[in-house]
Write a structure and sequence with these properties.
heterodimer, A: 309 residues, alpha/beta, TIM Barrel, eight-stranded parallel barrel, 10 helices, B: 258 residues, Elongation Factor Tu (Ef-tu), domain 3, Rossmann fold, Dihydroorotate dehydrogenase B (pyrk subunit), domain 3, seven-stranded mixed beta sheet, 16% helix, globular, binds flavin-adenine dinucleotide, binds flavin mononucleotide, binds FE2/S2 (inorganic) cluster
Chain lengths: 309, 258
């Protein structure tokens, strides 16, 4: 009996991924760092840490805080800047054969345009606009919360970049639908959702009759935000036609199927990489196993089946 | 594959009021050096919990764990024979060199110094191991100390805050005296931040080399999330370094103390 070939691939505007399992920005480094735990090139793609035009040193003080079912971060976009990325990281990505999406962030529309031009010039096949980072004082959050500003920003980036353009959406908005439509109308090839949820951690110590309080305010991520992400993806999938890449607490294969069931075409794994550093590779294997066992020959067949119920 | 390992708990023993010695059989770990740590997966928790290696011999990793919150409670509630998942080896190392070394531990901070002391002694480097604790019941003595000095185990000098064993007071009160008597070329310390700061400053005043082992809450353990950075002064520039990958061992002269 001939063995059916298994097709897990996803294609978005010419950007080919061998499977729909992607690792999320800020949780997986710039290139092959996770090779110490698993086989990075087996993944559909990795999304690089958010890159800005100039290097950034990030926030002072405590940056991470563990919560029930997740974590809060306020890294503040510490990154090496686009120039160092091109010089030091891009060659490693290419040499290792790792498919990647460049995540970019800026303070002004001009920053995004310049970064998109640089990506275009360097033949980078996919970019993700971080318009929703709650951890920096000025800049990108504003682009992600106003539909008109977002529409104009995406349109300007689109004019300067012809490959796969993904817009990453913030859950911290009043209307998920309007924001997703703005991204689509601006010319995005896909949206990814969600970025972190605004949150705060408080730690109280009672020492020598006095309270001592430490707080960490930033973006909440991990399993605890999965219901928020499911609802967000479900709502936007009803109003936009471009592919949705789901993000938010995804840890197990059941999570992946749940997001397929509300319309996702691919998924990103973030915080789960910290708990289980081989989580993403395991999901690729689990997906393959499931499809072989239940006789699905390609991904869209599986996605149709789980979405149709 | 790689740094994610499955091990088996071989032994758990209470060794002081709040500290336990945990031995893990790790067939996939071939080498761990003094200063490095392992990070243990704790059921239900997002972050793995980091612990300095206190000894390593023939695939057996020893960590000394102080009971604090959910993670340490989970590990210490595991039965001998049960399996355990952890990342290892992580972090950089103490430099092992032929310099007369004063080791300064305080509380659970003594943990990585046992392993360093053992390695240095094997190489016939002169060491002097001093440690400070709150009280006599807090003194951490490994299960099979090669020396026993009235409940003071391997230490060449002990202080307790309440004076219930050894010299009374904080280990910091004795730094000058220890330096004057032992005349080290180098100080290595692992202790709470305020103690490390005093040790680093004292070493600098005496023109001694100084290596310190720092702690920070960690998420990734491999330098990618930038959650655990501290600042170092290198030349005239302040730069971020990760405790998890660039550290946990740093040159005491370079650390910027906020
Ligand atoms: C490089 C390194 C080496 C360490 N070596 C040892 C060791 O040999 N023995 C030992 O007992 N402990 C060691 N620690 C500290 C140990 O990791 C924490 O005590 C442990 O993570 C607490 O977990 P918990 O869930 O029991 O407590 P929690 O309830 O999470 O926290 C209790 C306290 O520990 C602090 N803490 C939590 N997570 C960490 C973390 N990842 N790093 C530092 N502090 C944390 C919290 O801020 C809080 O004050 C080390 C830490 C680091 C970074
Ligand atoms: C430590 C950390 C750093 C992050 N950095 C970025 C970033 O630079 N750019 C970005 O778009 N998202 C960033 N994110 C958000 C994640 O990519 C992801 O959207 C979010 O964590 C939700 O997914 P999760 O629940 O699977 O972690 C970061 C998240 C974490 C936890
Ligand atoms: S814990 Fe992620 S950089 Fe140190």
């Amino acid at each position: 009996m001939a063995v059916k070939t298994l097709d897990l691939s996803v294609e978005i505007n010419g950007f080919e991924m061998k499977n729909p399992i992607i690792t999320a920005s800020g949780t997986y480094g710039y290139n092959n760092e996770f090779d110490v735990f698993c086989d990075v090139k087996a993944l559909g793609a990795i999304v690089t840490k958010g890159i800005t035009l100039e290097p950034r040193s990030g926030n002072e003080g405590e940056r991470i805080f563990e919560t029930t079912g997740g974590m809060i971060n306020r890294i503040g976009l510490e990154n090496i800047g686009i120039e160092a990325f091109l010089k030091e990281k891009l060659p490693v990505l290419n040499k290792c054969g790792i498919d990647f999406i460049l995540n970019i962030a800026g303070n002004t529309p001009e920053d995004y345009i310049k970064l998109a031009q640089i990506a275009q010039k360097n033949n980078i096949k996919a970019i993700e606009l971080n318009v929703s980072c709650p951890n920096v004082q000025h800049g990108c959050i504003e682009f992600g919360t106003n539909k008109q500003t977002l529409y104009e920003l995406v349109q300007m980036v689109r004019k300067n970049y012809e490959h796969c353009l993904i817009v990453k959406l913030s859950p911290n908005v009043t209307s998920a639908e309007e924001i997703a439509e703005a991204a689509q109308n601006g010319g995005a090839d896909a949206v990814s959702a969600i970025n972190t949820v605004r949150g705060m951690g408080v730690k109280l110590d009672f020492l020598n009759g006095r309270f001592k309080k430490t707080t960490v305010s930033g973006g909440l991520s991990g399993q605890c935000i999965k219901p928020v992400a499911l609802s967000f993806v479900d709502r936007i999938s009803k109003v936009i036609d471009i592919p949705i890449i789901a993000i938010g607490g995804i840890t197990s294969f059941e999570d992946v199927l749940e997001f397929f069931s509300v319309g996702a075409k691919a998924v990103q794994i973030g915080t789960a990489n910290f708990t289980h550093p081989n989580a993403a590779e395991k999901l690729v294997n689990d997906l393959k196993k499931f499809m072989i066992q239940y006789n699905f020959s390609n991904l869209s067949e599986l996605q149709q089946a789980v979405k149709g119920v | 594959m790689g740094k994610n390992n499955q091990g088996t708990i071989k032994d758990i023993q209470k060794i002081s009021e709040e500290v336990y010695s945990v031995k893990i059989y790790a067939p996939t770990v071939d080498e761990i050096l003094p200063g490095q740590y392992i990070s243990i997966l704790c059921e239900g928790l997002t972050f793995r919990r980091p612990f300095s290696v206190s000894d390593f011999d023939n695939h057996i990793i020893t960590v000394l764990i102080k009971k604090r919150g959910k993670g340490t409670e989970y590990i210490l509630s595991r039965k001998v024979g049960s399996s355990i998942e952890f990342s290892a080896p992580l972090g950089n190392v103490f430099s092992v060199e032929n310099k007369k070394t004063l080791l300064i531990g305080a509380g659970i901070g003594a943990a990585p110094l046992f392993y360093l002391n053992k390695k240095l002694k094997e190489l016939k480097v002169k060491t002097f191991f001093a440690a400070g604790f709150l009280s006599k019941d807090d003194i951490i003595v490994t299960p099979h100390p090669t020396l026993s000095r009235k409940g003071r185990g391997e230490y060449d000098f002990v202080s307790t805050d309440d004076g219930s064993n050894g010299n009374k007071g904080s280990i910091c009160d004795y730094l000058e005296k220890l330096i004057a008597e032992f005349k080290p070329e180098k100080i290595v310390s692992c202790a709470p931040r305020p103690v490390l700061k005093i040790v680093a400053q004292t070493a600098q005043q005496h023109g001694l080399d100084c290596e310190i082992c720092m702690e920070k809450v960690m998420a990734c353990g491999i330098g990618v999330c930038r959650g655990c950075v501290i600042q170092l002064m290198q030349g005239d520039r302040v730069i971020n370094k990760t405790v998890c990958k660039d550290g946990p061992v740093f040159n005491g002269k370079e650390v910027v103390w906020q």
